[in-house]
Amino acid sequence: MDASFTSASTVALGETETHQRVGARESRFLLQTYQRSPITIDRGEGCVFWDIEGRRYLDFITGIGVNALGHAHPRLVRTIQAQAALCLHTSNLFYHRYQGLLAERLVEWSGLARVFFSNSGTEAVETALKAARAAGNRHQPSRRKIVALHHGFHGRTMGALSVTGHEKYRRLFEPLVPGVEFIAANDRDALRRAVDRETAAVILEVVQGEGGIHPLSHAFVADVRTLTERAGAMWIADETQCGLGRTGTRFAYQRFEDVGLPDIVVTAKPLAGGLPLGATIFSEAAAAAIPSGMHGTTFGGGPLACRVAIEVLSMVDELLPHIRAAGAHLHERLRGLAGRHRVVTEVRGAGVMAGLQLSVPGDRYVDACLRRGLAINCTHDTVLRLLPPLIVSTSEIDEAISILDAALAE
Ligand code: PLP
Description:
The protein contains 14 helices and 17 strands. It has helices at 8-12, 19-29, 62-65, 74-84, 97-110, 121-137, 158-162, 167-170, 188-194, 218-231, 284-287, 303-340, 363-371, 394-408, and strands at residues 41-45, 48-51, 56-59, 114-118, 145-149, 180-183, 199-204, 207-208, 214-215, 234-238, 264-267, 278-282, 344-350, 353-358, 374-375, 377-379, 383-386. The longest helix is centred in the C-terminal third of the chain and has 38 residues, at 303-340. The structure holds pyridoxal-5'-phosphate. Pyridoxal-5'-phosphate binds at residues 64, 120-122, 125, 153-155, 205, 209-210, 238, 240-241, 268.
């Protein structure tokens, strides 16, 4: 063993750690799949975090839409400490107090009927796809087709990857799950042609996240509801990134009040405030597709994550008016920014979910922001993505805008 690598126990004992040492250790021992920004995060508070060398950053990416209540929220810290001292894991062989309570809350939020808990967005999508396949297989002949959208993102496991509309992520892992047809987002004619009696489900994000912050049109989403209903297929709304308050409503599909409800809603990222938790929420009819014993998980829906998620949902509910006001301020300031920098060609999004479309690759601007103390990221090559905590204040938005202003001027 190279002496330059500190053992885990020495680090735990508090020997001074540097970003350089952390990076060197990772490059030697980790699967090299991530392209990380060149800082090591040490701790956070509210909308700010500090790196291991003590530099301060405004957090406008929140671990990709996860730390919705910011860092170290006192209510979440108290809840985690209380539950950690009681019981961390039960498995799904037994009951605990919090899974049913959280399911009841998600049923109330979504307007649907039943919940299955897992640990991530991709697992929650797998659950939805299995339900669609199972329901489709009950028909004679089977309905097997899943319609998905170009630039949609649903996760990295084989099923979720199969419906992810970015060929560059899929190609290496083919053959994937068969029977998926991709159409362009907001193309109503293509949708009409694609949804037929062989269709088991249409899966979509009401605001596409990884694909570059593209909101779907009201007319397109309304057509999805009408056409799937007519064909006997399911509408799966993947709310992993756009849901749970981020666009100013509990779920993003609720922006279109007159459209009706999806058959299945998928949620994850911010659900347990930073702990891993996914949920797939079903209508009563969709839930009937998965009989007893046909799906399960060891970790999903544990007492710690579920108890924390109950707190998260209560706080997000109280925050909805604030999110709408903060979102309006954010978008107004971003439009101002677009007027000053020709490289910004469009501002998209809703609530505190925003994308700046650039005419050039965005990575250099992400780096320029980071050097000035603002954490954002670039998605779909040319879109600067902003996902600040739902608690973000007007002055924090203004601080982020001045950093972006300086970075874009570089
Ligand atoms: N669905 C959507 C809309 C997402 O944005 C993501 C992740 O970015 C996923 C699913 C996958 O979630 P996870 O990374 O938790 O598996």
